[in-house]
Design brief:
Strand 7 and strand 8 form a beta hairpin. The chain is globular and about 45 Å long. The chain has a single domain, classed as Creatinase/methionine aminopeptidase superfamily (Creatine Amidinohydrolase, Alpha-Beta Complex), CATH 3.90.230. Helix 1 crosses helix 2. The chain contains five helices and 15 strands. The two termini are about 35 Å apart. The strands form four sheets. It has a five-stranded antiparallel beta sheet with strand order 8-7-9-14-15. Strands 1, 2, 4 and 5 form a four-stranded antiparallel beta sheet that branches. It has a three-stranded antiparallel beta sheet with strand order 3-12-11, with no helix packed on it. It is an alpha+beta fold. It binds magnesium ion (2 copies). One magnesium ion (MG) binds next to strand 7.
Length: about 260
């Protein structure tokens, strides 16, 4: 165990896996409309991954916090759901929802992972601002991904942007190293209290590749569960937004490996 360092050649391979992930997410995002089920979105993600010769990374994945394997390829987290949203046939997307799509895949032995939040039709002003702030938190976190900085600088950037806008980063969740495996060390908390609990910080070094994934909510820092054994929700059921990029730490600065068409 420990933090993996990757060569430029390996980083190119991680980039190829990330390209697949972004392609899948963009295809699924385009299909989101009122009336579609979150289960349909999962099927679509599976199909899109297959087309690209990649293997979904979350299907049958057993995270350290569970004895079960995740039964879907895509995490779909709607409104108060933060992350790990379990797709369901009976869960129908409606106008005004915000929907986080989180997808990971393996291609030729390397992993990609990314997430974005989609507004379905007209959403409330506060949901719109929440999405914007979460994206800004991600951009600010990416900026500090340079050799010599620390994981705590990423945590601080996310927290600072969230509080500036009056929103909250959620505790006990965060990003991670990525490369040969979809989840590697270090854990990158979104909340300073979670970092303090971890009792360790990591210096960012050239060759580290990290998935940064701020999750912000309108009303609380605390998380809860919705009873389906997977979906994490906000404790006060206020809406949450989530974006995730993979970033390689290089001498030249942060290199974002998840390139989306519209930023
Ligand atoms: Mg991730
Ligand atoms: Mg993800």
């Amino acid at each position: 165990m420990g933090v993996e360092l990757y060569s430029f050649k390996e980083i190119e391979k991680i980039k190829r896996a990330c390209d697949v992930v972004v392609g899948v997410l963009q295809a699924v995002a385009k299909s989101i409309k009122p009336g579609i089920s979150t289960y349909d979105l999962d099927l679509m993600a599976r199909e899109e991954a297959k087309k690209r010769g990649a293997k979904p990374a979350f299907l049958n994945y057993k995270p350290p916090f569970s004895n079960d394997r995740f039964p879907a390829s895509l995490c779909v987290s709607v409104n108060e759901a933060v992350v790990h949203g379990l797709p369901k046939k009976e869960q129908i997307i409606r106008e005004g929802d915000i929907v986080s799509l989180d997808f990971g895949a393996y291609l030729e032995g390397y992993a990609g992972d990314s997430a974005l939040t989609i507004a379905v039709g007209e959403v409330s002003k506060e949901k719109e601002l929440l999405m914007k702030a979460t994206k800004e938190a991600l951009q600010e976190a990416v900026r500090v991904c340079v050799p010599g900085n620390w994981v705590s600088d990423i945590v601080d950037a996310i927290h600072r942007v969230a509080r500036k806008h009056g929103f909250y980063p959620l505790k006990n969740l965060g990003g991670h190293g990525i490369g040969r495996k979809v989840h590697e060390e270090p854990f990158i908390p979104n909340h300073p209290a979670t970092l303090a609990q971890e009792k360790k910080d990591y210096k960012l070094r050239q060759g580290m590749v990290v998935a940064i994934e701020p999750m912000l909510s309108l009303g609380t820092e605390e998380i809860s569960h919705n009873g389906d054994r997977w979906t994490v929700i906000t404790a006060d059921r206020s809406p949450a937004a989530h974006y995730e990029y993979v970033v390689a730490i290089t001498k030249q600065g942060p290199l974002v490996l998840t390139e989306f068409e519209n930023g």
